[in-house]
Amino acid sequence: MRNKASISIVYLMFGLFFSQNVIAKALRSPTQTGNEIIIAKGNIPTPEKYRKITTAYMTYAVKNIGNTILQLNSLKQNLKDSHVIKAQKAYIQAHQYYETVRLIIRLFGHTDRIINSRSSDFLDGVTDYRFKGFHLVEYLLFDQHNIKATLSAVDELLMNVNDIKRRLETEQVDIVKLIQSSSDFIEMILETKLAGKENIYSNSDLTDIAANVEGSKYIFDGIMLFVPHSTSMPIMKNYIKIIGIIESYKLNTNEYKPYNDLSLKDKAALFSVLTQQAYLLATLRATLNLDVYYKYEYLK
What we know:
Blueprint: H1 2-21, E1 23-26, H2 51-80, H3 84-100, H4 102-105, H5 111-116, H6 134-144, H7 147-168, H8 175-191, H9 205-223, H10 229-247, E2 250-252, E3 255-256, H11 264-282, H12 284-287, E4 296-299
Antiparallel strand pairs: 1-4, 2-3
């Protein structure tokens, strides 16, 4: 008992010593004025000059998720009418619209993992009970050709995507996360799609690469006026190179050749320019002097 009491006294003395000699000064926490309540968050509020950009982006996200829903409903109707090829095209376009704004969906907890996990994410693969969403639909439609099971999987997917749309209609995204997403879109291509690992049953990763590039560029286009010309020019040149390669595989609006048609030469060229682009986009937060967390200065 004496030992425990002695230890407690020592801890208490250390606590009193440091509390008297260290003062924390918040540098960037919001100032509370008037009677308004400020809710403590980990994010720094978006500066006023970027508000139009973040608002416009959420409108863009809602539109793309709305188009995802339209294509999933088209998929259902075509399957009911026994138009399997049309249903397959509808799946590819539905996933394309989703991939255009996927990084924002990732901000909503586990939502993306629930509706967009690949079979390779699970030890039991396609038999795992957690394997559902887009890629379950893809597997059943393109590999198993099981119309009844596909319709059931689409119904569950539609329920989740409709929920996402309702959330997007009321949510806002802060500028820091939005800018980070422009780089993350490119990273996502490098991690999975450039190797053809996303849509392995529909062979449609070229379509998703185009969607991720579009999503990244849309964000950059919104903030470009705030970026110095010396920084924005290399980024724009890279987008032109990337889009030029992808466009050579375009069949018509929102439709691209199968991923297997991508040549090794173009794959290597894409890898090079995408790697450079991901790095350049990742520097934008520092260029715009946007912090991710509140900073505290400790003074003795």
